[in-house]
Amino acid sequence: MLPLQLIDSFLLNYNIGQALLFVFILSTVGALPLKSQRIIGINTIVFGLIFLLTPVAIAKPHYLFLGIVLLIAGPLLYVTARR
């Protein structure tokens, strides 16, 4: 476990949108070994909602547009997955 002071001092240099984007990339890379397009689609939908619901006051507006794009791409990934 990392001490909270180390995590806090790291996150002070970035805004919430950048931190969420980093977590999205990490979770997508973490789900790749599962080789499930449905899980990647669900992950994309969830992070699209998170980016869309993040207030613009604490994140830049372009993360809102990223959320919209992820909400469009996520269901497409989920539906086109093989069973």
TrEMBL record:
Residues 1-83 form the DUF8006 domain. Keywords: Membrane, Transmembrane, Transmembrane helix. Signal peptide: none annotated. InterPro entries: DUF8006 (IPR058319). The chain crosses the membrane at residues 12-32, 39-58, 64-81. This is DUF8006 domain-containing protein. It comes from Haloferax namakaokahaiae. The lineage of its organism: Archaea, Methanobacteriati, Methanobacteriota, Stenosarchaea group, Halobacteria.
